[in-house]
Design brief:
This protein is mostly beta strands and 745 residues long. 6% of the residues lie in helices and 45% in strands. It has six domains: 149 residues, Distorted Sandwich (Glucose Permease (Domain IIA)); 162 residues, no CATH class; 77 residues, Sandwich (Immunoglobulin-like); 81 residues, Immunoglobulin-like (Sandwich), CATH 2.60.40.10; 121 residues, Chondroitinase Ac, Chain A, domain 3 (Sandwich), CATH 2.60.220; 93 residues, Immunoglobulin-like (Sandwich), CATH 2.60.40.1220. The chain contains four helices and 62 strands. β27 and β28 form a beta hairpin. It binds zinc ion.
Length: 745
């Protein structure tokens, strides 16, 4: 009997816990249509988190939207930017729900909005309403979905916020979508967190492929050798039943040998959390185009993020000469879970250079000098394609003597590693037939990570030469050994930013008797410290760089170089293009960049633009002149290519209704509308467009996605002549005007 009571109490306790967890609301789905999503809560957006869900409207506008619960309209916004037309409904339970990018509201709210536009004298409004002024009952129509504001296509952006207006995960508070598909784990990365950290012998971040065992289990086949403090990161996404997109995951839990070392769950968020986005997501891998990786460790004190468990650790350490089992659990909101398992080992990874190699026509013989039996692995690399790497089988001729056949140009670079008894792979070495009669060419680049800087020399066509790096520092030359890390690349040791203080020149020399100089470049950079502001010029005053304290978490090297870029299709490049670095470290604050503009050329429509190398496109940056007009100033939040461009093309009007000199019946002219396009700098906002009808300025709607202007006439036009005046200005001040009369008959 006692036992039964105990069970009963347990059931009540479980019920209670369950209800309090999901708060037991039962909201309606906000769109009167089948449940379809394009994005979930907390997905990454450029520089921020997605604070709601995106409900799919299948490329169309005009889906009816409904009140998900009883409430009143507490706020209305209209704008050509961000959320566009937005309705805020405060519910009886105190939560506020946000419907964004609407096409229009109900006729009653639309009338209120028109009145508010007149009251504020503009289209961009953000108006708070009194409690219970406009009430809605659960299921009432509240408006229609659309594509207003900053959108990439029609959809409903929907948010649920708590009493303090902080975003909640809608799937935690009464909305749900059926889902029985587990998340997919794509790959894992290991991030070195210290100068001395190494992953398989390398101090640079490494990506590992995962192998799918079944629907929910993934593994990394090879044991990974790590030294020093490291962090794991995972690239994963969720799939939802009957939904065709990839979605963000809901939570992660990481176990190291049965101990939880990291966990997070996107239950809620604070608006300030977006500032910490790149402590939770990996920045350098994203900048290299490798995808979005969730950090599985806390960074720079981001335990304060509302969704990260406070007990999470800021690094992973493996004891010397031991193995550690890692299990990464990734789950979605419906509780579907996937696991990634891997083994880490702490031990020294070395190169096995102890062999001799001889080429004979298309074959090659490799002889290891060792009493112990060697297990080698060979790969072929391509001299003309740095992404080519293929495993090649070998023949064992005798003890530690191996033969590879069919080696043909250009896949004739042999990559050699060995596997130890415990299954650990050595670092690769590279061999090819001597071709040192060819001139070695290549280029130097710097890779600045949070844990240090590498100087890399990449050969255009791989040689067999070994290289030495020489830094000119305070007019003295210092040489550093370089190591071939791949068929094409020679890496320096890892430097601290302070190691590059006053380095003015970098050169690479081949290790031949006379140390031939292969490549030389000037270095223009300065070191900035987190506890100080900075203000310095580079490249003979062509650039001025200013920044605040704590722009970076650690001491950082900022440098710039000239770079050749293709000319913009529209507009004229003025002066040179500059590459500002670092680009692999997130900027916590904007940096002020000033670019010199030559005195003899004073363009009227100039601005700084940044160049997207991948898309070969230039993008406008808000710019202004400094006090003595020697430099154009902009604010930057990442290392990019920047240049000054002068653009003189004014915006273009089309599809104007009513047409200038046209004749219409009054009943046919219900609105003034046209399309407006500006190809290069673009139009910033509706404030840059003016419409006057019969000498009176009207307040119109601007849909920046469709590039359409629309002014619904408030009254029937009188018979006779009417005057229309339209003016539009692009971001660099090019103006288009259209004016004239039309007739109402
Ligand atoms: Zn959205």
């Amino acid at each position: 009997m006692k036992h039964k009571i105990h069970n009963f109490q347990k059931i009540i306790a479980i019920c209670f816990a369950f209800c309090s967890l999901i708060q037991c609301q039962n909201y309606l789905w906000p769109v009167k249509a089948e449940k379809a999503l394009t994005a979930v809560f907390a997905e990454e957006r450029p520089g921020r988190y997605h604070t709601g869900i995106d409900i799919r409207t299948f490329g169309e506008i005009g889906y009816p939207l409904q009140a998900i619960e009883n409430g009143y309209v507490s706020r209305i916004q209209t704008s050509s930017k961000k959320y566009g037309k937005t309705l805020y409904l405060t519910l009886e339970d105190g939560n506020t729900v946000v419907y964004a990018h609407l096409d229009h509201f109900t006729p009653e709210i639309d009338n209120l909005v028109s009145a508010l536009h007149q009251y504020y004298g503009k289209f961009s409004i953000d108006h708070y309403l009194k409690k219970n002024e406009y009430k809605f009952t659960k299921g009432d129509l509240i408006g229609y979905s659309g594509d207003t504001g900053g959108v990439s296509g029609p959809h409903l952006h929907f948010e649920i916020r708590d009493k303090n207006q902080q975003p909640l995960n809608p799937f935690n508070v009464g909305l749900s979508i059926p889902d029985n598909i587990p998340p997919v784990i794509n790959s894992m990365a290991i991030i070195p967190l210290h100068k001395n950290s190494k992953i398989n012998g390398i101090s640079e971040e490494q990506i590992f492929k995962v192998k799918k065992i079944n629907e929910t289990e993934f593994i990394i086949m090879d044991t990974i050798n790590v030294q020093g403090s490291i962090g794991l990161a995972v690239n994963a996404f969720d799939k939802i039943t009957n939904q065709e997109f990839n979605f963000g995951i809901y939570g992660i839990e990481v176990h190291q040998d049965e101990e939880i070392v990291y966990s997070m769950k996107y239950d809620n968020m604070k608006w300030i959390d977006s500032k910490e986005l790149y402590t939770e997501k990996n920045y350098s891998l994203a900048r290299k185009g490798k995808g979005k990786y969730y950090h599985l460790f806390t960074r720079h004190g981001n335990e304060s993020l509302s969704f990260i468990n406070d007990n999470s650790k800021n690094k992973l350490m493996i004891n010397e000469n031991t193995f550690s089992n890692i299990s990464i659990k990734v789950f979605d909101h419906a509780g579907n879970t996937s696991f990634l398992k891997l083994v880490l080992h702490n031990g020294l990874v070395q190169k096995n250079n102890n062999y001799s190699i001889s080429f004979n026509k298309n074959n090659c013989l490799i002889k290891f000098d060792s009493k112990e039996k060697i297990s080698p692995i060979f790969h072929l690399n391509n001299k003309l394609d740095k992404h080519y790497r293929k495993h090649v089988n070998h023949i064992t001729l005798e003890h530690n003597l191996f033969k590879i056949e069919n080696i043909n140009y250009p896949t004739n670079i042999i990559e050699i590693s060995t596997i130890s008894k415990s299954g650990l792979k050595s670092m690769p070495t590279f061999s090819m037939e001597n071709n040192n009669h060819e001139k070695t060419i290549g280029k130097i680049s710097l890779k600045h990570y949070e844990h240090g800087i590498f100087i890399i020399f990449e050969e255009k066509i791989p040689s067999t030469k070994e290289m030495t790096l020489i830094l000119k520092q305070n007019d003295q030359l210092h040489s550093h050994a370089m190591e071939r890390k791949s068929a094409f690349q020679h890496y320096s040791q890892i430097f601290s930013p302070n190691d590059l203080k006053n380095v003015s020149e970098i050169s690479v020399h081949s290790n031949e008797i006379n140390m031939t100089e292969i490549f030389k470049t000037n270095l223009h950079g300065k070191i900035v410290y987190p506890d100080s502001m900075f203000n310095f010029s580079l490249l003979d005053n062509e650039l001025i760089i200013k920044g605040d304290k704590n722009t970076f978490h650690d001491t950082t090297f900022i440098w710039a170089n000239l770079i050749d870029v293709p000319k913009p299709k529209i507009g004229t490049l003025i002066g040179k293009a500059y590459q500002i670095q670092p680009r692999l470290i997130p900027y916590e604050k904007e940096i002020q960049l000033e670019i010199n503009i030559s005195k003899d050329y004073f363009p009227n429509h100039a601005s700084i633009y940044y160049y997207n190398e991948k898309k070969n496109t230039w993008h406008y940056m808000p710019s202004s002149f400094n006090a003595d007009s020697t430099h154009l100033i902009t604010k930057i939040l990442s290392g990019e290519i920047f240049a000054i461009i002068n653009e003189t093309q004014p915006p273009k009007f089309s599809n104007l209704i009513p047409e200038i000199n046209g004749t219409y019946f009054a009943s046919d002219v219900k609105h003034i509308s046209f399309t407006i396009e500006d190809q290069f700098s673009g139009i910033d906002a509706e404030e840059d467009i003016i419409i006057e009808l019969d000498g009176k300025r009207v307040i119109f709607e601007y849909n920046s996605y469709q590039k359409k202007i629309r002014y619904p006439l408030k009254y029937r036009l009188n018979v006779g002549k009417h005057k229309l005046y339209i003016k539009a200005k692009d971001r660099v001040g090019n103006i288009s005007i259209k004016q004239g009369n039309f007739i109402i008959k």
